[in-house]
Q: What sequence folds into this?
């Protein structure tokens, strides 16, 4: 693959195009300043204004959320995996029907494989604009987002309504549901009973990995973060590993499925047969399947990078009560 062809598979942090009306809570006070980024795959945005940077199917999606301090992403659920790592800032994640079943605070580099099938939300509790990177299971990201009833009800008061097929209509733009199109139904009490309410003690030990713990694990070889035999044991349709300067080496890598490289700290050089590229934190690179490549730090100092690789497994459930 030529350098030009590979460059088309790199999304630079400075080139990211946000959507500020991606979801039904985009006008709700407290959530109305968030930015959504769809980097690889279709993502779960409900807005036709969402820009997709790379549409090539990978078996999973890569996205990001950028939010100023005190901005919150409302309670929602997914049918497939949702994994976040903190690129910048300090974030509080919370879950449960009303967001009070459990919570955890994540710092830069920490990663959270949020259990599928529970309501979850998150907010930037830092002092500056923060950003979290997301990996979503499946090429269709599980068919969209399932919102807690209060989120849909609150959105009506601020001009946004979601159709039963998951398309967003913005009353502030003069939009309304077309004739014959019904609004997204609110979950019934019986349906809500099927959503688990795990405690912090249930979730954190099995679904959260701390940056500095991973640095220690990656002392001699890349640390397996998410996968069948990884620190966070799961099979969500992709595997995630963590590479540091000490564990990078210069051995060529090759995968049967596409891989995605996402630096957390430092600059990284990716070399393949026909060229090379340098990545910085916030950049995202898609490496095609069956491509020989190496990934190494391009300078001394602290360096860390996450790598996600599709496995071809179904993007299955992660929460087991």
A:
């Amino acid at each position: 693959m030529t350098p030009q062809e590979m460059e088309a598979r790199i999304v630079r942090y400075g080139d990211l195009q946000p959507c500020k009306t991606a979801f039904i809570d985009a006008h709700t006070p407290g959530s109305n300043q968030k930015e959504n980024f769809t980097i690889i795959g279709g993502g779960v945005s409900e807005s036709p204004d969402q820009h997709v940077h790379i549409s090539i199917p990978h078996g999973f999606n890569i996205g990001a959320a950028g939010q100023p301090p005190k901005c919150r992403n409302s309670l929602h659920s997914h049918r497939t995996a949702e994994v976040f790592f903190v690129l910048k800032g300090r974030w509080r994640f919370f879950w449960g029907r009303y967001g009070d079943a459990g919570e955890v605070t994540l710092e830069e580099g920490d990663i959270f494989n949020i259990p599928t099938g529970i309501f979850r939300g998150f907010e930037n509790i830092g002092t500056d604009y923060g950003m979290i990177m997301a990996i979503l299971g499946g090429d269709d990201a599980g068919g969209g987002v399932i919102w807690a009833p209060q989120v849909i009800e609150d959105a009506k008061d601020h001009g946004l309504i979601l159709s039963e097929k998951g398309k967003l209509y913005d009353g502030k733009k003069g939009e309304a549901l077309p004739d014959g199109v019904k609004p997204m139904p609110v979950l019934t009490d019986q349906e809500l009973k099927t959503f688990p309410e795990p405690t912090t003690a249930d979730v954190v030990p099995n679904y959260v990995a701390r940056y500095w713990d991973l640095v220690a694990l990656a002392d001699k070889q890349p640390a397996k973060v998410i996968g069948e035999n990884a620190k966070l044991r799961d099979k969500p349709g992709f595997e995630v590993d963590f590479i540091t300067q000490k564990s990078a080496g210069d051995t060529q890598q090759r995968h049967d499925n596409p891989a995605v490289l996402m630096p957390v700290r430092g600059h990284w050089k990716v070399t393949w047969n026909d060229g090379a590229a340098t990545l910085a934190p916030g950049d995202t690179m898609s490496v095609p399947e069956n491509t020989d490549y190496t990934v190494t730090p391009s300078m001394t100092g602290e360096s860390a990078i996450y790598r996600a690789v599709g496995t071809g497994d179904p993007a299955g459930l992660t929460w087991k009560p």
The mean pLDDT is 93. The helical segments are 3-7, 149-156, 189-192, 200-207, 211-217, 245-248. Residues 15-207 form a domain with the Jelly Rolls fold (CATH 2.60.120.10).
